[in-house]
């Protein structure tokens, strides 16, 4: 599915809608260049889960945990991960296979530990269509199963 947004507010609202519909145990991967709006999208997803505290990129902590929404929210940024053992040290399995919702930035760096049913989200800019234009591609493995 491809969705186009033309403002930060629209990108936030898309994230919020996904958060409102998220279910326990879902894992989202989020890719896109620096400055495409990953944090805005993530803030929307958190808002959709009912999280009221500020949500920022966990660049230096690898994972930020938010427990005050309708489901726990685990926001990973694995850009600075050295190897998979670091993920084991922070207890990623409790997050991936728990009752919360995970969103993982730079997930391609930990591809070997991701479950097969992650929902991949990619955000892209196209300056020819405007400074605030975003193309957001969502690949849901459940949709692929129903199409087969």
How would you explain this protein's 3D organization?
This protein has 148 residues and is α/β, with parallel strands linked by helices. The protein contains five helices and seven strands; from the N terminus they run E-H-E-H-E-E-H-H-E-E-E-H. The chain has helices at residues 8-21, 38-48, 84-89, 92-96, 141-147; strands spanning 2-5, 27-31, 63-66, 73-77, 101-105, 119-125, 134-139. Strands 1-7-6-2-5-4-3 form a seven-stranded mixed beta sheet. It starts with a strand and ends with a helix. The relative contact order is 0.24. Mean pLDDT is 91; it is low at 144-148.
Could you outline the blueprint of secondary structure elements for this entry?
Layout: E1 2-5, H1 8-21, E2 27-31, H2 38-48, E3 63-66, E4 73-77, H3 84-89, H4 92-96, E5 101-105, E6 119-125, E7 134-139, H5 141-147
Parallel strand pairs: 2-5, 2-6, 4-5
Antiparallel strand pairs: 1-7, 3-4, 6-7
Helix pairs in contact: 1-2
* Structural class based on helices, strands and sheet pairing: alpha/beta
Helix coverage percent: 25-40%
SSE order, as H and E?
EHEHEEHHEEEH
Distance from N terminus to C terminus (CA atoms, Å) equals 16 Å
Tally of helical segments: 5
The biggest sheet amounts to: 7 strands, mixed
Rg: 15 Å
Approximate shape: globular
Keywords:
148 residues; alpha/beta; seven-stranded mixed β-sheet; 5 helices; 24% strand; globular; disordered C terminus
